[in-house]
Amino acid sequence: MKIPLLDLRLQYNSIKDEISAALDRVLNAQRFVLGEEVEHLEGEIARYCDTSYGVGVASGTDALILSLKALGIKEKDEVITTPLSFIATAEAISSVGAIPVFVDIDKRTYNIDPALIEEKITKKTKAIMPVHIYGQCADMDPILELARRDNLTVIEDCAQAIGASYKDRKAGTMGDTGGVSFFPSKNLGAFGDGGMVVTNDKKIAEKINILRVHGSSERYRHEILGHNSRLDNLQAAVLAVKLKSLDKWIKMRQELALLYEDLLSGTAVTTPFVPEYNTHTYHLYVVGTPRRDELLKHLLSSGIETRVYYPIPIHLQECYSYLGYKKGDLPIAEWASENTLAIPIYPGLKKEGARIVADCIKEFFKK
Ligand SMILES: Cc1ncc(COP(=O)(O)O)c(C=O)c1O
Question: How far does the centroid of ligand 1 lie from the alpha carbon of residue 95, in Å?
Fold first, then answer.
């Protein structure tokens, strides 16, 4: 039996008719870029994330880029972030001309280690961009405390963590802005690219509204240089339908995570650690073992899809060689990139499927 890492068809089949009706509505209206569907979704996502505003943009990456721009981060500013993330996090920082400064991660949560941030703060530091990796929030209070002390802005990379919460606060509500991704594989995924900035700051929301349409608040009048970064109505209509099921789907992921936790306890793999202050949404279920590469081969050869998030930490990526980091500089992130892998988790994965995955892992360690 083959078990994919993610199967979106199961989710789709459960809401197919509603999705078709929503797509039909947009096709009949023949209004595709921004407009009613996007405005409706912005309101719904803001409500879901407990923020005052949501601004739909073309991708999660753009949500971060436009946040940085709206918050005034510019060339040569330093932005502190994590090396264990998708490249988009650092790429967003670089694309406004700023310099990503990488701080190592907490070995248990894989999130940025707040205790290591202070020593990296310089006169040039203007912002911190924590990533809520794999679906659970970074330890935000000490990060916010440092930011307050040094007057830094905080941009939460919530791409993997819509719906997650930290001490009863939702991801995206704690910093100045949160960047959400609707990439199809995300817990709330569109049928293509899409993203949203969530914020409680009216001025920032207004600025991003302008930045996403070529720096314009009035047709053919351009106050600032902007971007073409708009969410389209087809994606918004799909996302509004899916959003209604998001909590149910997150719950299904959490139930599978509990089952994995139970089935894998006492085995040689480490399972995700969730501090008591966090509610994990299990975008990814990442396990650890020093025999990672062998386990990966064993799972793949047994028909179980698995993937490494991320095999090269960002500070060691070729595109960042100019920053001068070398192997050994951020040992925990490097350890994670060599010793962890993600196993299948998605709404619709049957308990039986999770048992097969766990049995396959157990069988490997018996060898
Ligand atoms: C942590 C993280 N940040 C940013 C992004 C970028 O999002 P998008 O692919 O929607 O541009 C992703 C998505 O892959 C991500 O996982």
Answer: 15
CATH code where residue 68 lies:
3.40.640.10
Expressed as residue numbers, the domain containing 200 is 8-240
- For the record, the structure tokens of 173 come out as 């509500």
Tell me if 89 sits within 8 A of 82, measured CB to CB. yes
> Average pLDDT, stretch 6-28?
96
State the pTM of this model: 0.97
- Name the nearest CA neighbour of 179 among 75, 58, 34: 58
Q: Which residues of 199-238 are buried (b: 16+ CB within 10 A; e: fewer)?
A: bbbeebbebbbbbbbebbeeeeeeeeebbebbbbbbbbbb
Ligand 1: lining residues by beta carbon, under 6 Å: 59-61, 85-86, 88-89, 131, 157, 159-160, 181, 183, 193, 195
Same-domain check for residues 249 and 210: no
> Number of C-alpha atoms within 13 angstroms, CB side, residue 99?
15
Please give the mean pLDDT across all residues of the chain.
97
The set of residues, in sequence order, having a beta carbon less than 8 Å from that of 46 and lying 6+ positions away, is: 52, 53, 54, 198
What is residue 233's DSSP assignment? H
For residues 128 and 175, give the distance between their C-alpha atoms in angstroms, rounded to a whole number: 9
133 Cα–ligand 1 center, Å: 10
Q: Is residue 81 part of a domain?
A: yes
- Please identify, among 178, 205, 240, the residue that sits at the C-terminal boundary of a domain: 240
CATH code of residue 336: 3.90.1150.10
Atom of ligand 1 nearest to the CA of 131: 1
pLDDT, position 1:
79
User: CA–CA separation, 265 vs 59, rounded Å?
Assistant: 38
What confidence category does residue 367 fall into, taking pLDDT thresholds of 50, 70 and 90? Answer: confident
- Residue bearing tokens 């992921």: 253
Burial (0-12, 13-18, 19+ Cβ within 10 Å), 328: exposed
Same domain, 209 and 120: yes
CB distance 202 to 53 below 8 Å:
yes
Whether 108 and 223 share a structural domain: yes
Residue 325 falls inside a structural domain:
yes
User: Is the pLDDT assigned to residue 115 strictly greater than 80?
Assistant: yes
